[in-house]
UniProtKB/TrEMBL annotation:
Pfam families: HATPase_c (PF02518)
Transmembrane intervals: 7-27, 33-52
Organism: Marinifilum caeruleilacunae
An MF annotation (GO) of this entry: ATP binding
The reaction(s) this protein catalyses: ATP + protein L-histidine = ADP + protein N-phospho-L-histidine
Protein name: histidine kinase
EC number(s) per entry: 2.7.13.3
Histidine kinase domain sequence ranges: 230-452
Source taxonomy: Bacteria, Pseudomonadati, Bacteroidota, Bacteroidia, Marinilabiliales
InterPro entries: BphY/WalK/GraS-like (IPR050351), HATPase_C_sf (IPR036890), HATPase_dom (IPR003594), His_kinase_dom (IPR005467), Sig_transdc_His_kin-like_C (IPR004358)
Length: 452
């Protein structure tokens, strides 16, 4: 295979070309063989062309190699065997580089797939976009949060929340904010954090969005419970001795008055009776305050839910039987709807029943002076696939300034209310991993929604 060696082949071509050139000079010197000299000149040109093309084979090989890198085509193999050891080493080097690029590309694709899987699997919403609002990336958590299948521009979220869009487009690197969104029956508290970086001369903003409504409610309830425990403890410790002492003093005065009736003048007896009445008032008020405090201690003593699976239809039937007489007596129309009818709930039936009865009683009170009073009890699957139970009425409603306070312990709009019912209901829902929200348009429609 010596004739296939590049070096020997090149030397032979040079020798042949040199001999042909000498032959041309010889023929030209004879001055009579012009036709043969012309043919020899053509042969020289052809040999020069062949030598150049033969030598440029290395350049063509290098060009193909560089094009493979440029267009990321790492499927080629360079076959130049038999042209000498230098070409064999060149082939080995080219193929080794291609193999390395194949490994790097495979690792890059594997890393990209891994990151994409993590981004799509993570529970926090992530969106990457440009300053003009063009979206580069959105993960599954964001699609689920915004109830969309795709997002091209941040401005397309205005139907979800204009405030959120304005915040996303104005947030700078390292800034964070909290956005409240009323999404149908859900109240979302969105914690938004932004970071900005540069990729290939492109400014990209990456924001993380998390709904922390449940965490805020849990922290709020825990704070109220701690406050209630401290207040009830201190009040009980202070009032109990007062109640006891007032009873003791009343008894002493009764005994003293009976044994010394003849020794007191009329004015003294009146004074004694006034003291006794004052002590009785102190005892009555202190006993009432003790009962009041004991009632609020129930807010910190809610039993742990005993979960079971039951049909919502059965729950509604039980509540309707319990409240039917009171609803009928107040001339209220009651409508029940369940969609789909087969909805089943995993919860503590007794606790949820208690919550719904409390809400219905609130609705009955709100409908006292309403025309065509109506209560609607409905269950359905909301847009996020969660079970929702709703109590609606067309009563006097709740003004906007009060709506955010109705779940605060001790707060009530009823003259004889204790301010414990809705707060207790909120805690029960929290123990079930759910939420309770209120929406109201005064004199039109008031809704309390339980979401599980």
């Amino acid at each position: 295979m010596v004739y296939k060696s590049f070096r020997i082949n090149f030397i032979i071509r040079i020798i042949v070309l040199s001999a042909t050139i000498f032959l041309l000079f010889y023929l030209v010197a004879k001055k009579s063989l012009y036709f043969t000299a012309s043919l020899t000149f053509i042969a020289i040109i052809y040999q020069v062309y062949e030598i150049i093309r033969y030598v440029e084979k290395t350049n063509r090989l290098l060009k193909n190699f560089l094009e493979s890198i440029r267009y990321s085509d790492f499927t080629r193999n360079f076959q130049v065997q038999g042209l000498g050891s230098s070409f064999d080493k060149l082939q080995e080097s080219f193929n080794a580089v291609i193999t390395d690029f194949q490994k790097i590309r495979a690792e890059k694709e594997e890393h990209y797939f891994y990151l994409q899987t993590v981004i799509q699997h993570i529970g926090i919403s992530l969106i990457a976009f440009h300053r003009d609002g063009k979206v580069e990336m959105i993960n599954n958590a964001s699609k689920k949060l915004f109830q969309i299948s795709n997002l091209k521009m941040i401005q397309d979220l205005k139907s979800f929340s204009p405030d959120l869009v304005d915040s996303l487009l104005s947030l700078k690197h390292g800034e964070n904010t909290l956005i409240k969104v009323n999404d149908n029956d859900d109240i979302l508290q969105l914690a938004v954090y932004a970071t900005e970086f540069k990729i290939n001369n492109r400014q990209v903003i990456l924001v993380s969005i998390k709904n922390i409504q449940y965490e805020l409610e849990e922290q709020e309830i825990e704070s109220w419970q701690k406050l209630i425990r401290v207040l009830t403890h201190e009040i009980m410790n202070s009032i109990t001795p007062i109640s006891s002492l007032s009873t003791t003093l009343t008894t002493i005065l009764d005994d003293f008055g009976e044994n010394n009736t003849n020794r007191f003048e009329e004015e003294d007896l009146e004074t004694l009776n006034e003291v006794k009445m004052a002590l009785e008032t102190i005892h009555k008020r202190s006993s009432g305050l003790l009962h009041f405090v004991d009632t609020y201690r129930n807010l910190t003593k809610i039993p742990k839910p005993n979960f079971s699976i039951f049909q919502v239809q059965k729950l509604f039937d039980n509540i309707h039987r319990l409240m039917e007489e009171e609803i009928r007596r107040n001339g209220i129309e009651c409508e029940i709807s369940i969609n789909p009818e087969s909805i089943e709930l995993s919860a503590d039936e007794q606790l949820i029943e208690q919550v719904l009865i409390n809400l219905i009683k609130n609705s009955i009170h709100a409908l006292e002076h309403s025309e065509n009073p109506k209560i609607e009890l409905k269950a359905y699957m909301n847009s996020r696939g969660r079970i929702s139970i709703q109590v609606n009425d067309n009563g006097q409603g709740i003004i906007k300034e009060v709506l955010d306070k109705v779940f605060i312990p001790f707060f009530t709009t009823k003259p004889k209310g204790s301010g414990i019912g809705l707060s207790l209901s909120k805690q029960i829902l929290r123990l079930h991993g759910g939420t309770i929200t209120a929406h109201s348009v005064p004199d039109e429609r008031t809704s309390f929604t339980l979401t599980f």
